Amino acid sequence: MARRGAASSQPAYLPHQPHDPRGLVDPNESAFSRFLRTEVFAPEKLPGNVSIASAVGVFAAGIFVFRTWGDLLVPA
């Protein structure tokens, strides 16, 4: 199949450099720290992340309570 595009166009497999409007892109930043910065601590995603963290906390506390004092719920 023939390639459709100008002869001077670059191949599509070149890595795309991320564009940060604040200009805070560090080329030596690891993928994990970039994930934390853009998905976990990003101000626009923080309310949803706090909601998820509180739900996980309530779930874990419920498991702890029922495993610790669950025998009090069963009639003897």
| Tally of helical runs | 2
Mean pLDDT: 82
Alpha-carbon distance between the two ends:
77 Å
Helix-and-strand structural type = mainly alpha
Instruction: Choose one word for the global shape.
Output: elongated
Tell me the strand percentage band: under 5%
Oligomer: single chain
The succession of helices and strands, N to C, reads: HH
Low-pLDDT segments: none
The number of E-state strands comes to 0
What is the CA-based Rg, rounded?
24 Å
Q: How does the major sheet shape up?
A: none
Helix proportion of residues, in percent? 40-55%
Brief write-up:
With 76 residues, the protein is mainly α. It contains two helices and no strands.
Describe this structure in words.
- The protein has helices spanning 31-40, 46-69.
- The protein is an all-alpha fold and 76 residues long.
- It has a domain at 45-71.
- The chain crosses the membrane at residues 46-66.
- Keywords: Membrane, Transmembrane, Transmembrane helix.
- Residues 1-24 are annotated as: Disordered.
List the topology elements.
Layout: H1 31-40, H2 46-69
Keywords:
single chain, about 80 residues, mainly alpha, 2 helices, about 45% helix, elongated, transmembrane, transmembrane helix, membrane
